[in-house]
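Quick review question:
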């Protein structure tokens, strides 16, 4: 698995707004949206292109279009805050949805929703979830995608813990991971330290 920590001054500043406990829900959502644009920009850098003939007002030339736009899959709830930014960059794409809620006693994900095409054979997938903590949720999501035939899965998250990076690498299902930071680790509640708290609650309020 290729792991890329996107180093950029704007990425750092938006992540800091997200980490700051005094940021409002609206400030957190705006910072996540802007951060997601930058992370998805990097995650799509190597997408293959198809050449096409176009005509400018001045004359003919060659243009390009995405050869095989990826399916975008936000993991609900928190990944919803990244979805619009990804769709804006990839308007040709389609979107699927996976709903997972981590059980805060066992730290295992509990699935409550999946809305995906039956077959993902031949379709690259970009999975969006701001938090990669134990990695249980993203591993579950990637297994679901793999069961439907996905072979190229790119994960984009705002923050990761080393434990989660190792877990999804060990799954063998993820081609690349793009994140703004790999933090120190997990606390006894399996929250990322220093992290930013609960990314779903910080956007939408407690569930
Ligand atoms: O790596 P893990 O240990 O599995 O934890 C990460 C998961 O926890 C958060 O979702 P949560 O379960 O809180 O649901 P929410 O998005 O509805 O808040 C986050 O958005 C990830 O999906
Ligand atoms: O730090 C964490 C861990 C899991 N889920 C979150 O939203 N934050
Ligand atoms: Mg949550």
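Suggested answer, residue by residue:
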């Amino acid at each position: 698995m290729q792991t890329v920590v996107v180093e950029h001054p704007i990425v750092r500043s938006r992540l800091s707004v997200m980490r700051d406990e005094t940021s409002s829900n609206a400030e957190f959502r705006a910072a996540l949206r802007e951060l997601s644009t930058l992370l998805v920009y990097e995650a799509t850098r190597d997408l293959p292109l198809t050449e096409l003939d176009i005509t400018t007002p001045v004359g003919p030339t060659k243009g390009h279009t995405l050869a095989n736009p990826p399916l975008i899959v936000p993991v609900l709830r928190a990944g919803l805050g990244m979805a619009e930014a990804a769709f804006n960059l990839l308007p040709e794409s389609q979107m699927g949805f996976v709903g997972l809620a981590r059980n805060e006693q066992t730290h295992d994900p509990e699935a409550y929703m999946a809305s995906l095409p039956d077959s993902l054979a031949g379709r690259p997938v970009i999975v969006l979830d701001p938090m990669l903590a134990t990695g249980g949720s993203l591993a579950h999501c990637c297994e679901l995608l793999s069961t439907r035939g996905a072979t190229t899965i790119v994960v984009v998250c705002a923050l990761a813990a080393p434990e989660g990076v190792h877990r999804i690498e060990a799954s063998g299902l993820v081609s690349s991971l793009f994140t703004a930071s790999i933090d120190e680790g997990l606390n006894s509640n399996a929250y990322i330290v220093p992290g930013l708290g609960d990314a779903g609650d910080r956007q939408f309020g407690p569930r």
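Why it works: The longest strand covers residues 153-160. The chain has six helices and twelve strands.
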